[in-house]
Amino acid sequence: MINKAILVGRITKEPELIFVNEDIPLVRFTLAIDRNFMNSLGKKETDFIRCVVWRKQAENLAKYVSKGSLLGIEGNIRVNSFENEHNQRSYSTEIYCNSIYFLESRKNINKQQGDNNFNNNYENSRFNEENGNSKFDKNIDIDKEKETNSEDINIEEEDILPF
Questions:
Q1: pTM of the entire structure?
Q2: Cα 70 from Cα 33, distance rounded (Å)
Q3: If 0-12 CB within 10 Å is exposed, 13-18 middle and 19+ buried, where does residue 53 land?
Q4: Which of 14, 39, 49, 152 has the fewest beta carbons closer than 10 A?
């Protein structure tokens, strides 16, 4: 059987780190994901997907992510059942995250929150929990690379292509 979910969306509110049994970090959060098509009114609808992340990934999420941050997640779908206040069986569906991808740099998140502009630069940080350890991929600051590797290029008018 296969149970795998891969999602990319924006976190809807500030993550709140809690501890289960006093020592296991946990963050529950919701991703807002736009659908790929328009409704009858010509507007995109948004799905709000509940997600759960545990341990070191939960700590990293709470530390580095804020409302509006673009995240990618990999995980599996879990359906939980419980009795509600009317003694009826209720169900909730959540994604239990195995991997989280931070798809924006902190600089871009701050800029977006400040003036709602999107920047084409990004860095991808992957936090993947394996055997209780987190891996960190190398991040490159694209703006800094452009500054240090930029050279003036002279283009003659006859070198310009007509398209």
A1: 0.60
A2: 10
A3: buried
A4: 152
